[in-house]
Specification:
The protein has 487 residues and is an alpha+beta fold. The chain is built from 16 helices and 17 strands. A hairpin with a 5-residue loop joins strand 16 and strand 17.
Length: 487
């Protein structure tokens, strides 16, 4: 048996791919392992073909350059990754090294190539210790931050479970997709700006905070970190994207800011209460003197003076209560209140505004007296606020409707106030009862917040329904006097 036969038999038994190739790059010998890598029916069909024809178009030039400098000894060998197309038309990555056969081997070939599928090399390293592989996979998928690998074009090659959860998707649906399928609108602009900053910067990574498009997915605020990682080829680069969900942190921060605003408002109200109360008491005293000076012919004027005095007294009580926006009303302050009479009183207080805006209030209730156990001042404050909102919603005039409905399960009274204005946008509806949120140019955003607190303090509910273009309806429900007394 001569040397070439012996050499080829040895190559044929090796568990990795081997190719003998001439200077013209024609295959002179291929072992069965390499034929399997290329998806060929057997190793014989490759004889006489140029190995270069199996390479990806973008890798052919680099392969030719690679073959011009094969090492003559194992210590001089270099390894590179190339993309080949197998017999089924699928692209595969191959880790390859080349050398010149020894001069005394008797082999007439100019090159000896040794190669193996790149994916199998990586998996063999991971599979060397199966427990380690499983541990690393669990760490990758259980990380609380999203980890994603993107190729040069921005296509997702790998992703952990946290990133998939951000977009409520599966790995099969995400892999192979471009980042623009997930980051859209302003989020995409910020994402691409971060990638451009990475291109221009000397730092190893770039951080940014982006908000996902709420029209495409649920509101999410993400902190992203983009960095370079090595690709399969020295000339190739990839991106590693780390994403962390900051939505909860941002919401918590916003809640703390709101709490600080409320605290500041409480301190401000307490400091101003004394100063405001002085002119109020002076006005009450002056009106009382004017009331005493009236003769019997001005009894009607006396009614209005009494009404003004009572409103100033109520204002003084409200100023005191503003010392603490979250103050609970004491049980002794709650007395039986006739809601129907209270509504008529609020209409009388607002009759000038109603007349000036050319508004017609409709209040057809004729049922039994609707009695609730409540703080009369606080309940009047709620109804006055809701009716003033209805007036503000009708700048060109129109109607607003009021009604009272007795409920049985649970027993109580519902008060409905509906306007025929422009309605409230869905965006504003989500924040309508938030402190300091307002849609009015001159509002401070505390009216509905305080109303809701008052009603909930009375074990009731305050709800709103609105449709843009079709008006708004507020519904106040309060437990009946008997039911609340039993509780």
């Amino acid at each position: 048996m001569n040397k070439p036969d012996t050499f080829e038999r040895i190559l044929g038994l090796l568990p990795f791919g081997c190719v003998l190739m001439g200077e013209d790059q024609q295959v002179q010998f291929m072992n069965p392992t390499m034929a399997k890598v290329l998806g060929l029916p057997n190793e014989k069909v490759a004889i006489g073909f140029r190995l270069l024809d199996y390479f990806h178009d973008d890798d052919q030039e680099s392969f030719v350059a690679f073959m011009k400098k094969p090492g003559k000894a194992p210590t001089e060998q270099t390894w590179e990754v190339f993309r080949l197309t197998n017999g089924d038309g699928y692209e595969i990555k191959v880790l390859m090294s080349g050398t010149h056969p020894a001069e005394d081997s008797g082999v007439g070939a100019d090159y000896l190539l040794v190669c193996a599928p790149f994916e199998s090399v990586i998996s063999e390293k991971a599979d060397h210790d199966p427990s380690q592989k499983g541990r690393y996979e669990n760490i990758f998928n259980s990380a609380t931050v999203g980890i994603t690998i993107l190729d040069e074009s921005g296509t997702i090659e790998e992703s952990n479970q946290t990133f998939l959860d951000f977009f409520h998707n599966t790995k099969e649906a995400v892999l192979g997709k471009h980042y623009s399928d997930f980051f859209q609108g302003e989020a995409r602009v910020e994402f691409e700006r971060s990638m451009q900053m990475l291109e221009n910067a000397k730092s190893a990574y770039i951080k940014n905070v982006i908000t996902l498009d709420p029209e495409k997915t649920e509101r999410s605020i993400l902190e992203i970190s983009i960095s370079w990682i090595k690709g399969d080829h020295p000339d190739h680069k990839k991106y590693m994207l780390i994403t962390e969900d900051l939505t909860h942190q941002e919401d918590t921060h916003a809640a703390l800011l709101q709490a600080e605003k409320l605290s500041l408002t409480g301190r401000l109200a307490a400091s101003l209460a004394h100063e405001i109360n002085n002119p109020l008491q002076t006005s009450i005293g002056c009106l009382g003197l004017a009331q005493e000076m009236l003769d019997s012919e001005n009894q009607e004027l006396g009614i209005y003076l009494e009404m003004a005095i009572e409103e100033l007294r109520r204002s003084a009580r409200i100023v005191k209560k503003l010392r603490d926006l979250n103050r609970k009303s004491e049980p002794l302050e709650k007395t039986p209140v006739n809601v129907q009479e209270l509504l008529h009183g609020v209409l009388l207080l607002t009759k000038n505004q109603i007349f000036d805006h050319n508004i017609v209030p409709v209040f057809p209730y004729q049922g039994p007296p609707p009695i609730v156990l409540a703080s009369k001042d606080q309940l009047q404050q709620v109804l006055l606020n809701l009716i003033m909102n209805a007036i503000d919603a009708l700048p060109e005039g129109g109607n607003f409707y009021m009604d009272i409905i007795h409920t049985e399960n649970p027993p109580g009274v519902s008060i409905k106030i509906r306007d025929t204005g422009a309605g409230i946008s869905p965006e504003a509806m989500d924040h309508l009862f938030d402190p300091f949120f307002t849609t009015k140019a001159d509002g401070i955003g505390l009216g509905l917040y305080i109303c809701k607190n008052i009603i909930e303090d009375h074990q009731g509910t305050l709800k709103v329904e609105s449709e843009p273009g079709n008006g708004t309806e507020f519904t106040v429900w309060l437990p009946g006097a008997g039911h609340q007394a039993e509780e």
